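Board work, copied verbatim: Fe2OG dioxygenase domain-containing protein
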Amino acid sequence: MATFSSIKRMADDPNLTCIPPSYVFQIEQAVVHLDDVEGGEETIPIIDYSLLTSGTREQRIKIIQDLRYACQEWGFFMVINHGVNEGLMKRMLKSCKEFFHLTEEEKMEFQDKHVLDPIRYGTSFNASVDDIFFWRDYLKVKVHPEFHSPDKPTGFRQVLEEYAKAVRVIVRGLLGGISESLDLDSDCIGRALDIESSLQILTANLYPPCPQPGLAMGFPPHSDHGLLTMLIHNGISGLQIQHRGKWVSVDGLPNAFLVNTGDHMEILSNGKYKSVLHRATVNNKATRISIATSNGPSPEAVVSPVHDLLENGCSPAGYIGMKYKDYLELQQSNKLDGKSCLDRVKV
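↓ predict structure ↓
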């Protein structure tokens, strides 16, 4: 692969007044605020994690009901009172910012070569096949079941390892609650997909200021592979999710995780819980940094609808089984186009 020019390098040029034609993206402009959705009666679901893990029986039942609603109606929710130290979250964001501020030569040591490489630095989504490029640089690191990390900047490895472990704890708890919300045993999803060997990938995204934000897209509409994606950001807006056919701008609460359901949550629930389409927009004033941690099954797990949800054979499976690592390679090797990869495993 030829050496690419990063978005950061392009955006740092003081003479940049317009974007190259290869970055012009046809954007759906219609974006609504929650006040305009369904008469303003809807709000993004908020899950109090502390009540899921240590609340009273009645509180826990209510939180599981809230998870059912969030997964069925939104595919998205915020998690508060999760126990992850706010300082750790800030250090993770700071470390990723420091990575993107390394010299181009230092970052190119981790240049994206294959979609399954344990450490990948690149731009756009898959620059080798993209027709239109996206206003984004990224760092992707596999942190579980085997831990990997860049050796720079100083201290990055330690913060990454601590942060990834903390996120896995929350994900296990959420998956237990989601399993119960499907009327399954709390450990059903974990057993079926070998969660102890789960594939966890941390993706740091850099969206520098863009001189023509109305023409560019940070990341196009897509759904995520895996079960749950846990996202934090540096306070700059840009995330939008699709809800009831409309794009809704999302600003998370301080120190909260933004969580969306992925394709494999849709598959294992046999379509009861859908993965959510979302996208990232850009602005012309400030750099946005987000950190998305995808949490999936074991790479070797063949993911198909959970047997207990098929009502002893009365409900047909709506998805064929596919090994998780094969699905991941299929998605990452092609152009990003909505839920096109998920469509390939639908019956």
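The first strand starts at residue 31 and ends at 32.
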